[in-house]
Design goal:
This protein is α/β, with parallel strands linked by helices and 429 residues long. The chain has 15 helices and 16 strands. Helix content is 42%, strand content 18%. Bound molecules: NADPH dihydro-nicotinamide-adenine-dinucleotide phosphate and ligand VHF. It is found in: Cytoplasm.
Length: 429
């Protein structure tokens, strides 16, 4: 695949798109939504082939759940396009404006970044979300999904392009980078990361190996989305029922997502009230997860004494602390104070999503102010870290870095600003 030529075409489309009014971009997004709906059968059959290949290759069912599409998940994908159409176009927004004493008028306005490349995991829904967020914010986008979702992504991108063309949009504003095979399978990722001047920003979504490659080799500006080692801390003042419900949801609702629970911290005063109840709550998932007890609990010495007995309760190894399991497995640890919980989290987390369950407002605010993460919750599940759930329509990923964008990235993450200065023949003395 000639990525130079693809990027040259994306560059031209991005220049046209940057000047496109919101109504025209919205009409194009509606065209893409209609084309995806019309291509439903082809998308689902390509996706079945991807899923079969992944299963044959031994991919876990938790991971298959990220890849697999259904009629209802396609409905959700199409619905999220319509939610995005309703969002305010960030391009052209005046962030600040003032007049300096010499009479020059200065305005700081939001503008697109240009050509973005998104490198992402096996979720075909990200193909649509990333395209739509880029398009609405006036950017062209090169999509580099996982090779495991290649057949699905081909059909999806082709439908989007024909939907854009049919509705007067910029069909060249979106392209799919096709992974190579064998030793060359990530050659296109290397190309993207080195494409200074051709790609304005790369957004890698993925695990440690991808992020290592990005950190070591990227020469283009990057907004990193990191892996998720996320914690739930049950405070001494927690309501046990709420604590169990939040921990259960954080672990079970989508265990292979980056914002699922990997390590539960419980204050020693609540261990007896919470841990056995949570173990019982997990037990009802045994059939679904295919694991005895529903979830394997890897415990420190103290929590092991509270929980020990059933076969899903084991002693944690050192490597389990700070581990992203992405599965029905979880580490459990008892702590003596909120300060100890915060210290532990800051030493082991990946700056993604963290929550405290407590009825103490003072400790809630202490936790929120002290934990270093992109999203810090009080009395809520960490599974809410999501552009859709935050009302952004969709997300490009969850940035775990601190510059430019942090947390779920919506439309504004793909914009920068520009100063527009109006004078009347001003010259500097
Ligand atoms: N913070 C966030 O927003 C998100 C975080 N994540 C994190 O991602 C991880 C799960 O993703 P996973 O399914 O493992 O995806 P991977 O990290 O395996 O893959 C993601 C993308 O990167 C490519 N890739 C993988 N390794 C390399 C490499 N060494 N060099 C170049 N390209 C590479 C993949 O290509 P190919 O598949 O073709 O090998 C794929 O396109 C979890 O840790 C999760 O927490 C995931 C999504 C969002
Ligand atoms: N924001 C999403 C999770 C982000 C995501 O897609 O992550 P992953 O499952 O690791 O690919 C959600 O809440 O479902």
């Amino acid at each position: 695949m000639d990525l130079d030529a693809v990027c040259a075409s994306l560059r031209l489309a991005s220049a046209r798109l940057a000047l496109s009014p919101a109504e025209k971009k919205n009409a194009a997004l509606a065209g893409a939504a209609a084309a995806l709906d019309a291509a439903r059968a082809d998308i689902l059959s390509a996706n079945r082939r991807d899923v079969e290949r992944a299963r044959a290759g031994g991919t876990s069912e938790a991971m298959i759940a990220r890849l697999a599409l259904s009629d209802s998940s396609l409905d959700d994908i199409i619905a999220s396009l319509h939610v995005l159409i309703e969002q305010t176009d960030p391009v052209g927004q005046v962030i600040a404006g003032w007049k300096v004493p010499n009479g020059l008028e200065i305005r700081q306005v939001r503008v697109p970044l240009g050509v973005a490349a998104v490198i992402y995991e096996s979720r075909p829904n990200v193909t649509v979300d990333a395209f739509a967020l880029a398009y609405k914010s006036g950017n062209a986008v090169l999509l580099r999904g996982s090779s495991s979702a290649l057949e699905s992504n081909r059909v999806i991108v082709s439908a989007i392009r024909s939907g854009l063309a049919a509705s007067g949009g910029e069909s060249d504003a979106v392209a799919l980078s096709e992974p190579g095979t064998g030793a060359d399978s990530h050659a296109d990722v290397d190309w993207i990361l080195g494409a200074r001047g051709k790609i304005d920003v790369a957004l890698p979504r993925g695990g440690a190996s991808l992020i290592r490659r990005v950190v070591e080799t990227a020469r283009v500006p990057v907004i990193e989305t990191g892996s998720g080692v996320c914690h739930v801390y049950v405070d001494s003042d927690a309501d046990p029922e709420m604590a169990v419900a939040i921990a259960e949801n954080s672990k079970i609702q989508k265990p292979a997502a980056c914002n699922s629970l990997e390590c539960l911290l419980v204050h020693r005063d609540k261990a007896e009230a919470v841990l056995p109840a949570l173990r019982s709550a997990f037990a009802k998932y045994a059939a679904k997860t295919g694991r005895p007890g529903g979830v394997e609990l890897r415990c420190d010495g103290r929590s092991f004494s509270v929980l020990s007995g059933p076969e899903n309760v084991v002693r944690a190894e050192d490597s389990d602390w700070g581990m992203e399991f992405l599965d029905y497995v979880m580490a459990v640890r008892i702590v003596d104070s909120v300060e100890e919980a915060v210290e532990y989290i800051n030493a082991h987390n990946t700056k993604h999503s963290e929550t405290i369950v407590t009825s103490s407002l003072e400790r809630a605010r202490y936790f929120q102010n002290s934990v270093d993460a992109s999203c810090v919750y009080v009395n809520a599940s960490i599974r809410f870290t999501d552009g859709g759930q935050f009302g952004m329509g969709a997300e490009l990923g969850i940035s775990t870095q601190k510059l430019h964008a942090r947390g779920p990235m919506g439309l504004t993450a793909l914009t920068t600003t520009k100063f527009l200065i109006d004078g009347e023949g001003h010259i500097r003395p």
